[in-house]
């Protein structure tokens, strides 16, 4: 198995965290991964129970927020990739990621999609009040 290319502090990366994808800056190198400061959202996290994906009838349906601007999170080595290009504004990237996630659910009739869309609509109100 190929190991991830080692990155240095200050490097811009694409980080895959749980079910979201972010652009961030490495602020520390840890034995199991990198500490990444979030600068933009590429893909909004999927709603619901991560252990029962796409199931609406679960004990607790999690509302999953995107990581916040400048929030730092530990990301395993294999979930960090090189990022090249311009870093979009956090707010604009969050709006775009949220809009795309909601668009993907809009026309679906299954219970999970409806519950997820409702959850994302609540988050939209909260994010942009």
Outline the structure in words.
With 129 residues, the chain is α+β, with helices and mostly antiparallel strands. It has a single domain (12-127), classed as SH3 type barrels (Roll), CATH 2.30.30. Helix content is 26%, strand content 28%. It contains 2 helices and 5 strands; from the N terminus they run E-E-E-E-E-H-H. The chain has helices at 90-106, 111-127, and strands at residues 12-17, 20-30, 33-43, 72-76, 80-82. Strands 4-3-2-1-5 form a 5-stranded antiparallel sheet. A hairpin with a 2-residue loop joins strand 1 (12-17) and strand 2. Helix 1 runs antiparallel to helix 2. The chain starts with 11 loop residues before the first strand and ends with a helix. The relative contact order is 0.21.
Short description:
26% of the residues lie in helices and 28% in strands. It has 129 residues and is an alpha+beta fold.
Strand order of the largest sheet: 4-3-2-1-5
Q: What share of residues is helical?
A: 25-40%
Output the CATH homologous superfamily: Kinase associated protein B domain
How do the SSEs run, as a string of H and E?
EEEEEHH
- Strand content is 25-35%
What is the fold named in CATH at topology level?
SH3 type barrels
State the major sheet.
Answer: 5 strands, antiparallel
Please give the number of β-strands: 5
How many helices in DSSP terms? 2
Helix/strand-derived category reads alpha+beta
Distance between the termini: 46 Å
Overall morphology: globular
State the domain count: 1
Mean pLDDT: 94
- The CATH C-level name is Mainly Beta
- Contiguous low-pLDDT stretches (5 residues minimum) are none
Q: Could you say what the CATH architecture is?
A: Roll
**Computed CA radius of gyration, to the nearest angstrom:** 16 Å
């Amino acid at each position: 198995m190929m190991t991830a290319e080692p990155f240095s502090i200050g490097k811009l990366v694409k980080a895959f965290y749980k079910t979201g994808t972010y652009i961030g800056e490495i602020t520390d190198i840890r034995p199991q991964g990198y500490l990444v400061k979030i600068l933009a959202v590429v893909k909004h996290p999927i709603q619901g129970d991560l252990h029962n994906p796409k199931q609406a009838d679960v004990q607790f349906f999690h509302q999953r927020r995107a990581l916040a601007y400048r929030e730092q999170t530990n990301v395993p080595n294999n979930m960090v990739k090189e990022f090249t290009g311009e870093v979009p504004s956090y707010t604009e990237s969050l709006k775009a990621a949220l809009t795309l996630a909601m668009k993907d659910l809009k026309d679906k009739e299954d219970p999970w999609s409806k519950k997820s869309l409702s959850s994302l609509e609540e988050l939209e109100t909260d994010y942009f009040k």
